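User: Is it possible to get a 3D structure for a protein together with its bound compound? The compound here is coenzyme A. I've pasted both below.
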Amino acid sequence: MLPPPILSGFSGAEPSHVREGAKEAAWTIRAETPDDAAPIAALVERGFGPGRYAKSAYRLREGVDQVAALGFVAVENGVLRGSVRFWPVAVGPRTVLLLGPLAVETAQRGRGIGVQLMETGIAAARGAGWPAIVLVGDEPYYARVGFSKLPPGRVRFPGPVDSSRILGLSLSAGALLNLSGEVRRPHLDDPVCAGGAGLAAQ
Ligand SMILES: CC(C)(COP(=O)(O)OP(=O)(O)OC[C@H]1O[C@@H](n2cnc3c(N)ncnc32)[C@H](O)[C@@H]1OP(=O)(O)O)[C@@H](O)C(=O)NCCC(=O)NCCS
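Assistant: Yes, that's possible. Here is the predicted structure of the complex:
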């Protein structure tokens, strides 16, 4: 099998967004492959812990397949450094992307890996024609790749979610302007989980 395409790599050259004095940047971003599944699961477990199961975003992903073409990993010297994945979600009548989980190994944080993983995923999502991305997270971090807060109450995640942490990014002009409603699973890919999340599954 051919190796996955290398989308960007920094061997020998420092990306401009890596702080001076940070460890030398020598990671590569490439598309996720099936062999990455177990290391990514372990990375996400380390990054988020068991509490992740209670999170709204986790429940939205349960029983739904990730968008396979939008999974990316950062690898350095053959070792996984970080991962980003995207899931489809329904918001009102529209289907958009949910960003996450995004996780970078603790010892490798602050090198620009997280931002570069997101930039790669966002560019691929735009290229694939997705209209917008939403997420629940810290605006000061996600603003680095263009996310901003959505007007309170317009896009509503299930469960107790701080509305000031609901962020969005338009991938096509004005895509967020008419995005409103409950965030739901768009469909179920795994019927075993059908009753699990207690979310409306259309
Ligand atoms: C959040 C996370 C992915 C960032 O990865 P990273 O590779 O360290 O990110 P980058 O190197 O691209 O960016 C680091 C910068 O963002 C800042 N930053 C990181 N998390 C932040 C947050 N929650 N709020 C504000 N700023 C944040 C850092 O302070 C650093 O700032 P600096 O460049 O001014 O020093 C990583 O800390 C992680 O895996 N955390 C655990 C899982 C998690 O919370 N994921 C996000 C929710 S999906």
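The chain has one domain: 6-190. The radius of gyration is 17 Å.
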